[in-house]
Amino acid sequence: MSICIRHVSLNDQITDVYIEGSRISRIGTNLPVQAELEIDGSRKALIPGFVNTHTHAAMTLFRGFGDDMKLMPWLEEKIWPNEAKLTEEDVYWGTKLACLEMIKSGTTTFVDMYMMFHASARAVEESGMRAMLAGACFDHFNPKLAAKCKEKNECLFSELSRYDERIMYAIGPHAIYTVSGELLQWMNRFAEEKDCMVHLHVAETEKEVQDSIARFGLSPVRYLHKLGVLSPRLIAAHVIYVDDEEIRMLADHGVNVVHNPASNMKLGSGIHFKYREMLEAGIRVGLGTDGASSSNNLDMVETMKLAALLNKGWRKDPEAIPATTVFRSATQIGAEIVRIDAGEVREGALADLCLVDLMQPAFVPNHNFISNLVYAANGSCIDTVICNGKVLMRDKKVPGETEILEKAAELAYKLVR
Fold first, then answer.
1. Would residue 417 count as lying in a domain?
2. How many domains does the chain have?
């Protein structure tokens, strides 16, 4: 399949972009090419697709359920009891709904942690998106459960070949308070052997830190360091409660960190994410929405705004985190974290792209496009989405979206009834 996007705004210049197969082939003015599909990019801007580096896709089914609660009571009283009732069909349609929402707001790749891997993988494959999927693992410090987790991950990894290459595998220990040190070490060895990533919640709340010190004698990052599991394969979500020494540990071991401003604020987990310090230390910092049950939407445009404003606010410094920084975290750095050749609009890169509708009040006047995108717009500004050289949305319409909305709603109401 070949696609040519004509007369589109790219870095404040009007140009054409020619896509062959899954990659951007040529960028230039009035390209002398004939494509199977021509897209009029006038009055639109071209950006890389967003990379949501931490979410729980099927939790769209719990959107608005159990709101305004503290993290652990919310998990123990609302989420975990209902998750225990989930079926493969529930997870499949919940993930379909998440993919629809992410496509409509410009996300082309996401990093997920949830149960029922194959249900999620089928939904993602059908959507046309990319995803790094991790089956959530809990052993609750029980050796029998740990053995089951090991067996499950070995089996799932062996079955990955049944899916398109857009589906990537990660191993998903939930957190240090639900996964034993022995299992974390095994997972780190597994990831090294299989060359895959490890997706883990780290230092999300003050209570987690206090409990870690009480149980292990060390804060979460120091505990992970002692276990020997800090590495470039680790994607650490949240990481709010860390000091300068721990930031240095993360940087020295090449750990990837994901900032989730919406859920951190909504759950009252904390606001003092050390974005600037981590970047200065050389840490890759991506952005995530977390699940729709704790952030209520999967809109990466909104996530960029929250990340920038939150870090300016608690520091009382308007220069702390500029719009260009959060945009890079949501695109290029996110792509680096999941190890794909995307996140930029350049010749040779994967054709994971979005067209932004400039004929909206948020972009008038358009003195600074990135600032307008981050501070003025939301995900509804996305007009067209292309992933792996395939059009997933055009003119803000995704094929089959009505069925997805109706079926997901039906199952969600039945689940919590």
1. no
2. 2
